[in-house]
Amino acid sequence: MTPKDDGRGSAMDNWDDMKFMLALSRRGTMTAAARSLGTNVATVSRRIERLTESAATPLFVKTGGSWRATQVAQGLIRAAEEFEAQVAREENNARQTVGRGLSPIRLAASPVIISSILLPHIGTLVATHPNLRLSLRNKVQSTGLGEADLFIRFGRPEAGRLIARRVGSVSFHPYVPRGRRGPAGGWVGLSSEYDDAPSAVLGHSIYEGDPTVRCDQFEHMVGAMKSTGLPGVIPDIVGARDADLEKVENGGGAVELEFWLAFHQSRRDDMAVRATADWVIECFRSTAWANVQDEIEIAAQ
C-alpha cells in the first residue's frame, strides 16, 4: 500500500509542518520551539505528530528534558534546511537585483567578537548595503548554523556542508588587575558549561582548581576580575585594550584559537550572504587579529 493509499501522505504533502520539525530540532523543547514560531505547545505537538504519522516512524525521542531527533528525522532536517536555505538565497538575490525590499541576515558570533570586531564597523555595512537588515546573535560556542545565516566560531568547523574560511586568530593569556591582588589561589572563569573550552582548560591548569567566580562572557569576567582583584584567562583582544589589566607573560602559559566564518553551501551564490561575509572579513582585516585564508568546503557527516 502506498503512503497515499493509507492516508498518511508524505512529508511533501505536509511541507508546512517541516518548520515545526526544524524548530524543535534547534530549540530542543516544545515550549522553546513554540515560542520561536509564535504559536503554542499544542500546535507544535500536533504538527510533529502528523509528520511522525507520515514517516511511519518516530522522529524525536525525549532524553532528559529535551527532544532529540532520530536518525530518520536527521535526514528530513537536512533536506528541510537545504530547502530553507535555497528559498532564502533566491529571495535575497531577487531583492538585491532589483534594489527593492529588505534582506534579513542573521549572524551568530560570541559576544567578544561582536563587541570588539564587528560593532566598530557596523556603520560601513549600513552605508554600503542599505537593503540588508543585519541581526547579530550571541552564540558563544557555535557548533552549527541553527537559525543563523552565517556564524563565526572559535576553531574550524568539522561538519555541516559549509563554506568556511579562517578570518583571524587570537591568543588567550592570564591577566591580573593592575596594582591589585585578590585572595591567593582564586581566579575568575567562564560558566561551567564552557569548562572544555581551551581557555578554561588553561585556567584550571594554571590555578589548579575551579574558579572562585564564574561568568558567561569574557567582558563580564573583566568586571569580576577588577572587583575582586583575582586573575583570569581572557583573550588578548579584550585584555590588551584595558589599561587596568596586566598580562602575565612569564610562567602563565597561553593558548591560541582561530576565528572561522561559515555559511551553508547552498548560500554560496546568495548576494546578501556574500555581502555580509565580505564585510566580516574586512572587519577582521582592520584589526591586529586578522589571519584570513581562502574558502574551503566542509562536508556533511
Protein described:
Keywords: Coiled coil, DNA-binding, Transcription, Transcription regulation. Belongs to the LysR transcriptional regulatory family. This is DNA-binding transcriptional LysR family regulator. It is a single chain. The protein is an alpha/beta fold and 301 residues long. It folds into two domains: 1-101, Arc Repressor Mutant, subunit A; 102-301, D-Maltodextrin-Binding Protein, domain 2 (3-Layer(aba) Sandwich). Helix content is 39%, strand content 23%. It is built from ten helices and twelve strands. A hairpin with a 2-residue loop joins strand 1 (60-63) and strand 2 (66-69). The radius of gyration is 22 Å and the shape is globular. It starts with 17 loop residues before the first helix and ends with a strand. Mean pLDDT is 85; it is low at 1-9.
